[in-house]
Amino acid sequence: MSLALDVKAGFAKRPRSPPPKYFYDALGSCLFEAIGRLPWYRITKAETRLLRRVAPAVAGALRGPVRVVELGSGSGVKLALVVEALHARRKKTDVHVVDLSAAAIEASLERLAKIPGVSARGHRSTYERGLREAMFGPRGKGDCLVLFLGSNIGNFDPADATRLLSAVRRRLRPGDALLLGTDLVKPERKLLDAYDDPLGLTAAFNLNLLLRLNRELRADFDLGAWAHRAVWNARARRVEMHLVSLKSQCVRIPGARVVADFAAGETLWTESSHKYEPDDVDRIAAAAGFRRERRWVDGGARFALTLCRAVPAPGAEEDS
Ligand code: AVI
User: How far is CA 249 from CA 27, 252, 262, 266, in A?
Assistant: First the structure.
């Protein structure tokens, strides 16, 4: 779907909720990159630290030649750690980078170009379409490794997360691997500091969505009339990000054919970041047709990397 259709659909819900994938225009991607450096937002740093340690074990578990597909690559730093580990084990590797941002793909491909003997391609696309493109054509005997890192899965509600992982599974053969990064439940204070940081970067990241709607859909959001809010919903185990209307106002979005009245205090629900217990990860993976093989946890930041294998679909005859 396009931005206009997604915004129209998102504004038809209550609370109004445009999809979070539209945070990542050029400025939004820079702001997210900066958030990753904040001391309060520990996901990016914890995962990079963990990957530095475990990439050799991940590489060692795969049969070459290996096809690596990263869904949502960002700058490609973490992807490069895995590909370097495969290179160190002399496993021939071809890499597919799937991201909606052209800048993210370019940064990842540039990084990968420095690793000898690696072929790499970018797919500027949604996760599912990009994966379909990446898996198109004949496969060799080796394994495929899908990287879904950064707790990106946390931005889907549990049913959609299972649906997405099931779609990933359908593109794979039994024995192929999935490396899943998930942020774990932690004390509320830590979560709120991560999603409402004292420097205001997360607030800027959230408000930038309105700037994008103004620019791309000719909307008339007055950014001064909205405030960032992060709340921990303990029952649903998710941090919710909202933009709170500071007054009663009417917003027009001509490019999406939307006119929306907001009462003072009413919110636009812009993102959910689900937090997991390790067992939840196993459950969601199993429901999608994967079996956990190994898990590594950064105890300080409470972040997990889980290596899963695709299991044969019940009753299906697949190549293995
Ligand atoms: C990309 N995603 C996993 C981030 C998260 O933690 O949900 C996006 C983000 N939102 C606010 N800060 C970071």
Answer: 26, 10, 5, 10
If you measure from the C-alpha of residue 132 to the centroid of ligand 1, how many angstroms do you get, rounded to a whole number? 25
Q: Is 154 in the pocket of ligand 1 (CB under 6 A)?
A: yes
Q: Yes or no: say if 59 and 82 are a contact pair by the CB < 8 Å rule.
A: yes
Q: Which of 41, 99, 155 to mutate to test the pocket of ligand 1 (most atoms within 8 A of CB)?
A: 155
- What is the distance between the alpha carbons of residues 82 and 190, in angstroms, rounded to a whole number? 29
**What predicted TM-score, i.e. pTM, was given to this entire model?**
0.95
Q: What letter would DSSP give residue 153?
A: G
DSSP string, 202-255: HHHHHHHHHHHHHHHH-----GGGEEEEEEEETTTTEEEEEEEESS-EEEEEGG
pLDDT tens-digit readout, 256-271: 999 999 999 999 999 9
Check if 197 has its Cβ closer than 6 Å to any atom of ligand 1: no
Which protein residue's CA is at the shortest distance from atom 6 of ligand 1?
A: 273
